[in-house]
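Key idea: predict the complex, not the pieces.
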Amino acid sequence: MSTMNEKITEELRQKARQLLESGRVAAFLGYASGSVPMVMRPFVARTPEDADRLEWNSFCVLNLANYLPALLKSFEPPRRPNEPPPQGPLPKVGVVATGCWSRNMVVQIQENQVERERLVIIGISSRGMVDRKKVQALIAHRDVTAVKEGDNTLVVAGPGFEEEINRWDVVRDNCKSCVHPDPVIFDDMIGELKGERDLPDRFSQVEEIEALSAQERWKWFTSEIQSCIRCYACRNACPLCYCPTCFVDDSRPQWVGKSIDSVDTAIFHILRAYHCAGRCTDCGSCESACPMGIRMRILTKKLQKDVLQLYGIEAGMSVQEPLPLTTYKKDDPQDFILTESLKGEKK
Amino acid sequence: MLPRAGFQQWLQELSGQFEIFGPKKNEKAIVSWQRLEGGELPDMAPGVPKGSIKTFFFPQPETLFEFTARPKQDDSFRLREPEKRQKPRLVVGVRPCDARSVLLNSMPYKEDPYFQQNRQNVILVGLACRNGCSTCFCTWTGGSPVGTEGLDILVFELEDGFVLEPVTERGESLLQKASSARDATEAERQAVQEIRDNAPTSLPEAMEPASQLVQKDLMALYNAPFWQQLSDSCINCGTCTFLCPTCYCFDIQDETLRGKGRRIRYWDSCMFPLFTLHASGHNPRGEKVKRVRNRFMHKLKYFPERFGPLSCVGCGRCVRDCPVNIDIRQVMKELLAV
Amino acid sequence: MNPYLPYPARIDDIVIETEDGNLKTFKLVLEDDADRAGWHHVPGQFAMLSIAGKGEIPIGIASSPTEKGHLLFTVNRAGVVTTALHKMNVGDPIGVRGPLGNGFPVDSELKGKNIVIIAGGFAFTTLRSTLIYMLEHRADYGNITVVYGARTPGMLLYKEELKQWQERDDLDVHITVDREAPGWKGLVGFVPTIAGQVKPSPENAAALICGPPIMIKFTMPPLEEVGWTDDQVYLSLENRMKCGLGVCGHCNVGPVYVCKDGPVFTRSQVQKLPVEF
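Result:
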């Protein structure tokens, strides 16, 4: 009996191979197995044979939308920065997408980073991806040499041990609190759409911190980012971060210091989060990429919650939907601009 | 030979003379280099700490000098050397790969006053590895899990204590201060020898020496077909370079506040596009594939051509923490096959 | 000796070189007698100019070692530091770190040779240093030919000196501008075209070429046509640099550091490197 993931893998390879063979796509973006357990390698299949290296399992944690703008561009004829794009249809790229990844593709389409016509999206309804840091914590940080995945279990093995873990126990926080596992745009599906999940407590992780005093929240934040090494893995793993020059790298003017001064690090994390407001799909790529175990997606989750409450919008649910923070309506809530003390004076 | 308590007592005694550091677990169970107080023992679980040992020699950031920054005034740009660190430091629980990285970095930094002064003021007390971890490959790069290069003292952990071997003179003189030390028994000597014999063979899959890469044609390696595929996965973050003990690139910048300034150098990464960007806008390594290739070519070809050894000690940090599983071991194999 | 500490210096004079005002020559004097006495550079070397609070920038040394007591740097306004430098006045303090890099082999390989200097735009700076050095040691070199061009007459550097050089009979000088311009009576045409017309002989000769990459690319075919080989051609590379000491890693082109192994390389050396400059 093959597992669900094995079936998905088989179907994925087949579909990707067909797309590449027929010439409908120039490349297919998916995942291949890595050289260490629990880390998958984002992989660009360029030939039908490459398609056989595609793999699907619970460790596909980095959002593939992240790679699309550059990958699409690599198939365009070279041109100068101000030159208009060439006439006629450009080569397409195939990509596998879960709910959040597809929503990021929607955001990219809304923000003119990718064109829908150039994507062939193979949708997969997500069962939630696994947080390898949680697995490591469960097995007391011993050296893991092999992980075998069943439908609802992981068998984790290393020198002198083998343990079975319940898969859901180690699923990432963002996946556990996700209500949209289905892709919102796709050209083809593997498996069935699952429908929305009903999760009344999806923001509980945020609410826990909201309940703290301002002082305690600051303490939480500073201790959370204290180990940051400024490698920018969180930023670079994020499909929303595509500015040609990021504000942290800019030197004219220099917005923020480049070493690991705690103030600079705090500015980086706060601004990074705010740049994602109204655009973040809580895909968890940032947190999965972080080598230091910083839970920075709680910041973006808070902004997601606020945007949902203020504007009733969740990022990337539909191409037609306006981007909440780049459109203006007269009846937009504006109360949050005022500080508590100013609000008091108004009364 | 020092029993556990004797080892702690020794560290306790040395804490008057040194600031003592070692691997220590934080609340997220991440092992990092931290201050150890009052005879505290370092975390001795197998493997290397998360962060790089270079932080002791090439701190993030290093103040090169201080100055007054009041343009057009007479005292502008009067330089002051930064304040010197008061106490020398002693780092315990250093794995042989990490210690070796200090020697390797010392080659390009041979005439660097800051790095060399830090070397003078940091004592490294090593901890021999009994077993390699699944991401370890020190033997591929010219090191050994029981190697002494770069260390002042090498420690072997046994059932009921530690056997300490001096490597340098300054290590020897520190060992003389270990009041409860006694000569190792024959059985203990044998236990140490067993670690010596078994540790190297415990490492996963040995490989033909990567040092052979020096003989390969530079442009043949440079033009090898696999770089594109490798860079397809890369997200160009600095995780590999910042965790790597032998990545030593830096940027220099001035920081000023109210007329007082300092020039600092801080870790930079050849993975970042701005690393090579000219003021004109031209970028010699503007494409990701060029940056990915440069990092590996530097470690495996350019550095060895200049200095001899590979600029890699096989600690496996990059393998362990690369978010997209770019694995230098596979790159070595690919390059050797060119 | 701490190689990261700049020598204190002062701006002694500023000359606006070009009509667009973007190129200025700064005459710097090291403040300390010992620093002045200890300074020895070779034409083709560079130094780090340092402005407190702004940072450092590598600039080729435009003065010849034979011009004692001061240093000249011709600076294009481009980034943070050069913009700050352009705002400075005579008397302002500045730091100088160097000399750095290898320079042209004026006292070894180039000695006794016929010299051809080909330059475009503001890349002429270290070649000015070289030319003046050679003129001071005129007997050490054979024929000296100079081909120098800029976009317009107003964009030429060192205009007074160019006139003096043109008047010398021990020097063959060809100054050109890209397009016809009012009042310009000299040559018109791109540097590679003029170099092709001059047809310098490769016999016992060396060419020093500095300019934008595109100029170098198109200058080579006419030279090769008359028999020049890559090991006779010296180029000066530019890359982003930070330390200038071959440590920080910014300027490497494959296995070489432009700041330490260069900036001067023969073209045959450059041909063996990846195109990362």
